[in-house]
Predict the 3D structure of the following.
Amino acid sequence: MLFKLAIRNVFRHTRRTLITAVAIGVGLMFMIMIDSMFGGMENQTVRNILETDNSELVVYPAGVFEDRFLFPLDTLIEDASAMSAELEQKYPDVISATPRLRFAVFAIGPEAELFALGMGIDPQKDADVFQLQNYIDEGRFLAADGDLVIGSGLAKELNVGLGDPILVQTRSRRGVMDVREYEITGIVNTSNPVINRNAIFISLAEAQVILEAPGAASEINLHVKGKPKDTDRLNILGSGISEDLGASYETYTWRDLNAGMFEIAGQKQSVGFFIAFIVIVIALVGIVNTMLLSIYERIPELGTMRAMGFSKGNIRWMMLMEGSVIGFFGGLFGVVLGLVVVILFTEVGFDMTPLLGTYEMPYPMSFVMRGEYNFGYMAFVFFLGWIISTVITLIPARKATRIEPSEALRST
Amino acid sequence: MKRLLISILGIALAATSLEAITASQILDKVDANMVASTMKFSAELKISISGSVRTKEFKGFSAGEDKAYMEFTSPSRDKGTRFLKLGDEFWMYLPNVGKAVKIAGHAMRGSLMGSDFSYEDAISNEELAESYDASLEGEEKVGDKNCYVLKLSLKEGAEGSYYTQKLWVGKESFIPIKAEYYSRSGRLMKDVQILEFKRISGKNYPTRIRMENKLRKNTWSEFVLTDVQIGVSIPANVFTKGYLER
């Protein structure tokens, strides 16, 4: 009977109830949207990293992880192609594997010179793990020794284009300098600015000659089955591989290799959720306000109910149910609205190009922002909205339970 | 007959004198001049880019192969910029950063203050004979100076920046009046000329060195050393990070 009464009370003032439910719904919609946006951004960043820079699991020689950005050539994986093939065969979860040899380059164009990231890759094997070949803007992907593919941003900084000559200065394993002239045979434009701004790709065989490191590579990238975000699974597989390879090697996940970047992204995400939290608080103040108004309007009625024998507990329950009903509909509305926004965001995307102009994103993500479906989070948001709306009603309910029947009836 | 005998004797003597000195002996003499146990100096660094010349002043200390210190004293925007080499480590201190920053190995080949000298060129104090095999290619005149032409090839397994070097070593001074540095692929990277040298502490030591980075266009740089003191004692604390960040 209390529930029936609560439903009837809620729909007594349809407009007020609707406004409150919509306010809650909009707050929840923001939470869902922000989650989808950050999830989408993270997915895109992860995809861009995995398609161009690091695979799901990367094998390094022991001890170089911390110094990997200094491109140490004294500790490399010797006979890397053989190890790569062995890893590919031995582990059913490893779809493909490829060695990469990273080195510091001093790139000299006709008008400018810049430090760059050199990468020796095996074009065939690399294409089984990464997707660079799909991002060639001009020219071709590495086809033969002597080919050079350059990141679009780096080419722009050096003021060079397809077919232009470029001098590549390197230092070999024993410190010997080498300078070779290449013709640019391809320009790669990925959505990963680290690659676009810094990278120069040549064949692995050629890099090994220049660096006096025959057969060697800095790392072996393993493309692994399953979801890349499932880092627990990756860690288990990585630990197994490290154990099998012995103390001379270490295995890291893509997340370990990009931890710094995700830490910053995490901080931004916290700010996003804080904003959503504020919106929710505002919506909840709305529900408290609605309930209080409803109580003040119904003081005589509540007094009559108390006089008829309804206990304070009955009144409290009735109020909680009223809040709960508003919260339920608000939550439902929020999730439906959120879902619509997420569908638009994920399927169509939000093109930020006009907003950004010539600015390049500092993270590996594209200009078209896309969302992510996170149905678990939507369910969580629904229940969160519902439960908090119910619980928050305790505040006005307390007021309602304090009404004395005699005073209430006198006020009529 | 007498004239013929004198001619034969002359030729024989010339041949003997040519054989008398080997490539490695020449290189040892070069090292004896060019490598200082300890050194203290003041210097000017002239940098010419497309005809416009800038001058920077600095002072420096070095001890053996492993320790070197440089501090720029002018112009005002470079004043206080300091460099320290400690073994394989190389540190830079910028006054506006206020902290010593370690320079990565590959950055050592970067340009020193925008000049044609790399950091490495500027602080290297290593004996060439340690890392290079020398062969005598002949004799040539550089300007008015008679020189031995030496070809240096990096020894198998040895560490060094340049794969081959060609030196024109003054027959009297035993300093490389001219040098060319080549990359592993045989490309000329740098051209060096010693324009002046002085007799200091029993060594012929270069005091004006001009370098042209052949990978750049229309540039040259010159080190002009003044007040060079060789074999002097240098306080040990100079070669510390604390002194760099003082």
